[in-house]
């Protein structure tokens, strides 16, 4: 895409409850029309209840917004940052309205998800498309999205740092138990998704060329790029596993589940694991509960040394990377991009600025497809002449 003179940035995220009374309404928002069994909702509610009904994700996004603002200011880039969520206040639609009322007309969205897929990419694009249509801002407010950034060095580097520290920690834990030479393993983890979503992820021509679905292939590319940056990881066994599955039991989701995989590794002689959550950008509930509580307990039962590497959060390289992603798309007064080039540190990158027709498409129960932005086949988001 040619650079454009964007006048504001939208930080788009998932949202989470901020107190006990928010938990159930939030879960209803997330699962609306999606056939998640009630027992699963009750189960997930307990994760939030145990934390005072508060998801860590909103505080993390407030911190990320402040860090983005500081980095933009430090580089002399005059773009305000607004924050809107898909599932909890501040919601995307009033945020877009606020941006418009404040005089902005060309918005570049950065979402807190680095990969292809319905939940990771398209649902954000649709939620913008629906918000523009419902608010009457269609054709008046233009919203584009930065490319999927799984391959960006700003995303890869924090995981590499975390893996190096994690290997040192697990080796020290094993040494303290008199098992210096014991085998350990690197476990990259991401959110499981229905296999049908995985099959629909990304451009059709690319999906046909790869051995894995595009969602899994992007994660494998990230895993390899992280490993390449950590000399201490050379020769170690590693794998990509999935977590946080929901949905009806008869619907197939990506496997193996992390807890099943850990049991297999232990049975095969592994004595310790470094878990690297490459599917996530911050230490939100899926990380602190499903990994730091459940997977950690699984390891304790199996007698495995455990270390969970951090997510990018507000890591300096990640924040710089976000501003790079904005800068490569934003035109300065000379009409040229503020940052020439498109950094990439993994296979499959750099990704497209604009999604291909039917990329990650999901047909709703009533047979329709929601309006979406930032795609070749977008119906909304492009101002009429
Ligand atoms: C790919 C992916 C990401 C990563 C990309 C991204 O970040 O967007 C992600 C992130 C997150 N998922 C989150 C929370 C939940 N996800 C759920 C349900 C689901 N997630 C799915 C996928 C993903 N989810 C899917 C296919 C479902 C099934 C229902 C549906 O198709 O929508 C449910 C319902 C209950 C349950 O079934 O678990 C909850 C509560 C939170 C907030 C955590 C916090 O509060 O700190 C975050 C960041
Ligand atoms: Fe989720």
- Residue fraction in strands: 5-15%
Terminal Cα span = 19 Å
Q: Segments where pLDDT lies below 50 for 5+ residues?
A: none
Query: Total number of β-strand segments?
Result: 8
CATH fold-level assignment of the largest domain: Rossmann fold
Radius of gyration: 21 Å
Give the tally of structural domains. 2
DSSP helical segment count: 13
Task: Classify the helix fraction into a percent range.
Answer: 40-55%
Helix-strand topology string: EHHHEHEHEHEHHHEHEHHEH
Shape-level CATH architecture of the largest domain: 3-Layer(aba) Sandwich
The spatial strand order of the largest sheet comes to 2-1-3-4
Overall 3D geometry?
globular
Q: What does it look like?
A:
The structure is a single chain. The chain is of the alpha/beta class. The chain folds into two domains: 8-149, 3-Layer(aba) Sandwich (Rossmann fold), CATH 3.40.50; 153-308, 3-Layer(aba) Sandwich (Rossmann fold). The chain has 13 helices and eight strands. The chain has helices at residues 23-31, 38-49, 57-74, 92-101, 118-135, 153-176, 195-200, 204-209, 214-228, 258-267, 285-288, 290-302, 316-327; strands spanning 8-13, 81-85, 106-111, 142-145, 184-191, 237-243, 272-276, 305-308. The strands form two sheets. Strands 2-1-3-4 form a four-stranded parallel β-sheet, sandwiched between helices. A four-stranded parallel β-sheet has the order 6-5-7-8, with helices on both faces. Helix 5 (118-135) links the parallel strand 3 and strand 4. The longest helix is centred in the middle third of the chain and has 24 residues, at 153-176. It starts with 7 loop residues before the first strand and ends in a 58-residue tail after the last helix. The structure holds coproporphyrin III (HT9) and fe (ii) ion. Residues 14, 16, 27, 30-31, 34, 36, 40, 44, 55-57, 112-113, 117, 119-120, 191, 193, 246-247, 279, 284-286 line the site of coproporphyrin III (HT9).
